[in-house]
Amino acid sequence: MKCVPSAQELTILYCDKKLSLSEMAYTTNLKIHKILYWMDKYGIKRRHKSEANYLKANPNGEPFKIKSKLTKREIKLKYLALGLYWGEGNKATNHKNRVTNSDPGVIKISKNIYLSCAKYKITKFIITFKHSRITTLAKRGAFGPNSCQSTPTELIPVNPSIRWVMVPTRKSALLE
Question: What is the largest CA-CA distance in the chain?
Fold first, then answer.
């Protein structure tokens, strides 16, 4: 017969060591529903699903280190980055962000902010635009290594859209 886990043992495993229910069941050699029964009996509150997922995704603890003291320049950059992301950015996936804008200056500023402050690395840099003669220019190789052959007026984009996708270099490097 298996032994009954104590409230202290369950609290240490669940709250202090942050083990999941299945990990606790494996450690105590009990079934998950028995762990749940004893946790309810002892009044140990269970984690929300989002907290459990966060702990599973970050087993080494908090991946972000938020600076408490910012310089005036860093404060300006922070608000500029937030504004650019809210206005021009979106999340491609859980770990990728994108910024899209027709002004190359906006893209350059946002790229520099994210590279310097958030320690991101750029994985893609895409420039797309509509042009009345795009097929002619593409056939001539105007966008390849010999793109200098076309005249400057032919390469002036109509409705340009510049986008870059970034991912953190490592999770612990964010917001250092």
Answer: 85
* Distance set, CA 6 to CA 19, 28, 46, 145 (Å): 16, 11, 16, 71
Q: In what order do the strands lie in the sheet with 158-168?
A: 89-93, 96-101, 158-168, 120-130
Burial class (CB in 10 A: 0-12, 13-18, 19+), 13: buried
**Residues ≥6 apart with Cβ < 8 Å to 10:** 24, 35, 38, 39, 42, 44
Nearest to 102 by CA among 176, 161, 31, 152: 161
Q: Which two tokens stand for residue 175?
A: 């917001």
pLDDT in tens, 57-85: 777 777 666 677 878 888 888 788 788 77
Q: What is the pTM of this model?
A: 0.42
Rounded to a whole number of angstroms, the CA Rg of the chain reads: 26
